[in-house]
Amino acid sequence: MIFASDNWAGAHRSIAERLLQESAGFAAAYGTSDLDRRVEARFSEIFEREVSVFFVATGTAANSLSLASVQRPGGITFCHSEAHVIADECGAPDFFSQARLSPVDGELGKIDPAKLSKAIAGFPENAVHHGRATAVTITQATEIGTVYALDEIDAISAICKERKLPLHMDGARFANALVALDASPAEMTWKRGVDILSFGGTKNGCWCAEAIVVFNPDKAKEMSFIRKRAAQLFSKSRFIAAQFDAYLDNGLWMELARHANGMADRLRSGIGASNSARLAWSTTSNEVFAIIRKSAGKTAEDKGAKFYEWPIPSATPDLVGPDEILIRLVTSFATEEKDVDGFLSCLAS
Amino acid sequence: MIFASDNWAGAHRSIAERLLQESAGFAAAYGTSDLDRRVEARFSEIFEREVSVFFVATGTAANSLSLASVQRPGGITFCHSEAHVIADECGAPDFFSQARLSPVDGELGKIDPAKLSKAIAGFPENAVHHGRATAVTITQATEIGTVYALDEIDAISAICKERKLPLHMDGARFANALVALDASPAEMTWKRGVDILSFGGTKNGCWCAEAIVVFNPDKAKEMSFIRKRAAQLFSKSRFIAAQFDAYLDNGLWMELARHANGMADRLRSGIGASNSARLAWSTTSNEVFAIIRKSAGKTAEDKGAKFYEWPIPSATPDLVGPDEILIRLVTSFATEEKDVDGFLSCLAS
Amino acid sequence: MIFASDNWAGAHRSIAERLLQESAGFAAAYGTSDLDRRVEARFSEIFEREVSVFFVATGTAANSLSLASVQRPGGITFCHSEAHVIADECGAPDFFSQARLSPVDGELGKIDPAKLSKAIAGFPENAVHHGRATAVTITQATEIGTVYALDEIDAISAICKERKLPLHMDGARFANALVALDASPAEMTWKRGVDILSFGGTKNGCWCAEAIVVFNPDKAKEMSFIRKRAAQLFSKSRFIAAQFDAYLDNGLWMELARHANGMADRLRSGIGASNSARLAWSTTSNEVFAIIRKSAGKTAEDKGAKFYEWPIPSATPDLVGPDEILIRLVTSFATEEKDVDGFLSCLAS
Amino acid sequence: MIFASDNWAGAHRSIAERLLQESAGFAAAYGTSDLDRRVEARFSEIFEREVSVFFVATGTAANSLSLASVQRPGGITFCHSEAHVIADECGAPDFFSQARLSPVDGELGKIDPAKLSKAIAGFPENAVHHGRATAVTITQATEIGTVYALDEIDAISAICKERKLPLHMDGARFANALVALDASPAEMTWKRGVDILSFGGTKNGCWCAEAIVVFNPDKAKEMSFIRKRAAQLFSKSRFIAAQFDAYLDNGLWMELARHANGMADRLRSGIGASNSARLAWSTTSNEVFAIIRKSAGKTAEDKGAKFYEWPIPSATPDLVGPDEILIRLVTSFATEEKDVDGFLSCLAS
Known about the structure:
Chains A, B, C, D: Keywords: Lyase, Pyridoxal phosphate. By secondary structure, chain A is of the alpha/beta class.
């Protein structure tokens, strides 16, 4: 009953075995092997256009270097006020991009387009004292389990285009969002105006597989230097490539995400039907936020369940009753039905 | 016949299988799992004192964050003029440490203590215009296959202590150096006055396993923030831990280095005995530098051998004859006797 | 009728003449002249304790280097959401300190202590993902003309002490605040727990005279390197010293601030008594925020008045009527009664 | 008898009086005043083409921001191994540009073109590990008093053009070099292929007047943000403009440099004719390097002379006899004949 985070899971067996298989033999280092090239080409297929791909070690690296690649002095990157980049990356995006992250509010973890417009308008061109708007980043799926609908991405993107701001998408849970929307990778990204993507594999069944995908390869010219200077170029890069190779084979990545989301659906159904717990807000990815009785939480923990208590959002101070807590439950490719059902039975008890 | 670099090898089977085994099950993320803790403790055993250990993604990261952790504004880090940190890391150590790398010459890839003393003396304390000496870094084994003897490390260390400069060791080929010296990890590091070590596993049989080892844990307090801000904290950190676990089990790491050095010895013997090739300089680790006939190089390449032609050192412009080339040959845990013998026979042909 | 900003004024005649006088003769460069030393010593007298003083070129430099001097990796500096450091310095404090500025709200331009406590509480010690609270900065007088009372500084300071966070004061209008409070420099700073001060002279009658004052000289050891590396060490530093020398002579600085505040009082009285304009909020320094009729603003501008229209604070969207505008009026040492009266008569017309 | 440095002088009376005159009245801040605009336009006249001009506080700032403006990740800036940027600016150029300064040798303080070519050749395009050549900077006049002839600048410039590297000139003693070459500002800069210039006024009679001159204004678009973020935008910018205004009036700047160089000529003649001292090497600007008897140095100091003993260049260890010292003598606009003659008489004694 591990719902603490999807990164508490290990690696999917197919991916782990693909790594074992890759362990033999020799290959050129630093991302120049045949396997590296072949897997990079697969990204172009998946996204239905030529893209540039850069493997890095962590999701924080993917976000930080993506944002670094589009920055200019005095720059400001707009993100949701609860986004991972601003809340959970220890200032790495600020450090690498030398830009300030400026938080924008919005319901359900999504940037409110009107608020974004207003925030950007506070930075007229050439107003040197204020600094300048230089990028926007959205998280898909969001930190609180919701997913931008395609037209919601369009709304953000339109604002970016008007001011010629590059749009980055943090896709640490990219596959889960695709499943939730039943959209194609292209439809959810460059067809909506996304310029650069953090494509995450780690949370969805890899050991360590993160990639920066740049949709306009002309704009990726600096990235190989940015990555190397950031100490993110693996010598045995093919071990990342091998993971992605297995991940993308036969749609495994979508299958794993579908499983994770399905387990979350099972949680959502169970909690929705419960008398003793309720959903804090509606989510569609592999994260579920629930309000449960403290005693039920204690029971679950005693039985080995792992999950995080979540801070009450300041906008809804009365969300949670006196004997209740707000918790986050994250499912993954490795979550089993019995874990879900076991947890649900703890709530009922 | 792959002698291009030790990072062209894959992973040793024991390590790859340990990874496969670790793929199942759940564990706490971000370096807090039991396995992470246990492997960190193994480092203290190996070094015969309590140490702080930080896993990172690349050797460049280990060097860069090590140097960052001991820097102060206006700082200067002294390194050998051919060191990896200054020659092959795209400015990453400068970027993370915000210090200048200042090259010091010395024969056979090793910093000359007299030249180091003189270089440091150019930076008296509080001479704000010049900047200030803040660190020294040595590479063990060096970039050109040599190894600092223990008393050579003592000589560097004594200079550092006099000016209270922290001494860092880039141990990308740490195990190969240990084997070459027949020394213990403690003897080659903190007992000699080394303060911080980049402990490399990748070149010696891991997929991706690098660690920063801080010998005085009191001085490691900032490192967890430095690492996270550098986007180098793995979520599934235990996969690094698992590699190190297998690497350290039953002295596997030493065995692999012994094998690599032994294969280099075989190369050295063969070349030393050859009429048609000669050693460019004496080495004792897993790197061999040889002067061979151009035609022999061509023959070897035609038969599938991989190696790099090396630039002629500016101090010895006449090292190489008109029909000759200088080449670097690197052996690894995966090099086989038949590769060595096959290559030697190409030279003779 | 120049009320655009106090930095539109020139230099007070005594200061300008002191500069002329200093132009002859030779003296040691880079802040080592007798005059530099003597003026630095005057700061210790004025603050009634030994302090370390560092002259820099701009108020932005004073703030940025102050904050840089107390930073650690992953750090977060808390400031008011409208503070100059976050709103008007083009990211310089972020750039030099490599810390994120995190905005905290509060009425009348002052940080709300309860909100500060809550904001800091979001960063428990060693929570590496979030980053960590490392500094607090307040502006005295604030960007909107108000002044922290001494006990209001105490309240902020107490929060800082509890978490051992250094407290910085941006004193670009330090003298105006002193006059408003009728407090001594010591009372308004280190006796309240302020650790480091940006002491501004430029807005109050100097050409270019800004100083960083560190109240605990032990903590100033890195500053000379931080300053030089930031390209802020003047070769002919004594010209900054000379300005401060004249500025501090016979209490000139307090006299100039008293004059500026007095002119603001005259504006406040006039506007308070007016039928056609009103004060937007109460201020006590040399800044006045008024709501006037658009037509009156037009009249004043036609007669040569200079002032800035100010954005309506989001907390009070109904502050200004349909035919009105919110304006900022700043007085200085050079403002004359006839300017004030001339402006007031425009409002009435 | 102050020969310590030209920045020990004060300000020329015309410049100091122009500052006094500017002290009255009001003007728009942050470089937008009529005077700022007018003085910027004078630079275009002086350089015989449209240029972009940015005032900054120090020569170190001019160099650092110039180099920052042309950098890309992993960049390397080539400079002479004794250049001010690498030897005397506490790492500021490295800090602001995030590029490494790579020293190139050359006789008489000037980069040797052949060595520069070879150094750059070590960084082939796209060799991500090494980093990449991104800029070249030369100092005119050099740190040791020599001056690049126009065709020597051409030789450096040709190398830059071949690799499309921007060429920066550190003109802290720009006027002294112009006088030495009897060249026009245009002839010594953009007509030779210089792209960006640090134009120094401080050492030649101003209090504090340094400017970055960008010869292709299209390439200056980022500079206003770079400058503001570096805390180098003066609020009362017109006080820099006023200094330059007086400096450039009626050729004052050339007259002052001619005087300084003339006083150096007088020193050179006297030392050349002396039996007890000799020139260490030939210089043509306002710096003179002489070998004198230790006793003569002592005598001169006892009589109040100020000068710096200079380190013996490592290329010429036998330059100085056992009872001799190498000294640097710098003249300025404020040096008088009697100072020179007084010093010469000390040498003879």
